[in-house]
Amino acid sequence: MKLKKKYIVPVILSSALAASSFTASNALAQHPDQPDKSWNENANVPIFVKEKFAEKRASSNASNALDYLEKNEKKTGLKNPKKNLKQKETEKDSLGMTHVRFSQTINGVPVEGAEVVVHYSGNDELVSVNGSHFPEVEEEAVDTTPSESVMKAVQTAKKAVEAPEKLEYDPVSELVVYPFDGENRLAYKVNVNFLGEKPGNWFVFVDANNGEVIDQYNAIMHADEIHHSVGTGVLGGQRKIHTTKEKQPGQGTVFSLSDESHEGLEGIYTFDANDGEIMTNRSASWKDEYLRPAVDAHYNSEQVYEYFHDEHDRNSLDDNGMAIISYVHYGDNYNNAFWNGRQMTYGDGDGSFMVPLSAGLDVAAHEMTHGVISNSANLQYRFESGALNESFADIFGTLVDADDWEVGEDIMGPDAKADGRASLRSLSDPSKYPVNEDYVPYGNGEGKYPSHMDEFYDLPRHLDNGGVHINSSITNHAAYLIGEEIGKEKLGQIFYRTLTVYLTPTSNFSDARRAAIQSAVDLYGEGSAEAAATADGFDSVGIYE
Asked: Hey, which residues does 215 pair with through a beta bridge?
């Protein structure tokens, strides 16, 4: 094994991030302000059809699903499904149910954010359809032949987000139909990913005909022999970790934070952001102060991997054994952690408000759950779908680190604790903490994290991507209420199924309610205590159908 894997990236840090600019409400991936344009999210029509008297099908495949949708246009609102839907994937779950997922398309070009899922029982009975679509796209003729080149679009996207010359990953582009500001435009969706002083996981939509930037948003989601080694974590705890021992010419024996002991998993690797290489040590005992954040990141990564593997039969973040990669020592006094679409990255904190963020198991679980979300529902990182993205990350953070209902209690520094800030967010009592003062005018005036829709913050897109870290506390509190009633294990089963089976990129809070109740019914039965508790939890926070 080579200590430097093919996915190691050079990290370029240009200058220190000012710790004084940090506030508690932007922890775990606060984004810079963006132009306040209006994405026409209200034109996105949700679908939820539950078949009480299901028709038996010959088999649960895409062709039969399209036959049903074709015959039931009035029920679903979907017009010409055989022409306008393209199969993405078909999956069979542990309950024996089959789920056929489609993208809405125009001439084969996907409509951004529009997905429909058809669900079959274990007996091949079609039992429900959910998702969302843009009906006006179907009515309107959209020219899907681009006149601008993808190369030019990529350059435009890089310039729009002020990307550095040297990128860690090549930009990825896709031709889409983008419903925006009342128009349906052909666009290149360009993902530009970079680290540096202001890390970015930008999605830029460049008009494929005139080359102008239509929209953009930052989706940074803030927070060969295998040996058993012993390390000391940030808070002094002893950690048993998997490392790799290798003899290097002229250097003797070296141990690295490389774990390739899990069958079907490419590996768990922990890097030093200062040099872009896997962390190494001359001894199997990892006790040096500089090594402690890496020990925690490595240990916590394995704990989160094992939770999803053991509880949900999921093989890594993509369910296909992808490598789990963490970087530590990022930035200078950096009070944050984030998932950038490919890896976890942890700052060391400023020692006053925060200690190194990799110390928090729930922080690691939060960031890694963003990876699970990216590879399942792929919830768009804005408004209610973005708030659901953050909420599921918080919820699974408290399910993996199951001692309490707080997020980030282990990473708060002495000054934060002295000021009464014992954690980043609370699922049990969201209002115990204030929001950023810039957000106060958009809420009910009390300036606290909301726990009910009556306290919803109607934030514009340029503030917290429309409230992704603020309004998430409403569904967080619903999960807490459900978990207190039925226990964390069942809560995890219901919410994992909600995320991976029923939610689609533009799902909102009401969609999440329907999906969670349906998931509880799937798992525990119609009229079960679990289904009732799930409905009660959403009722209690004012989220209705």
From this structure: 205
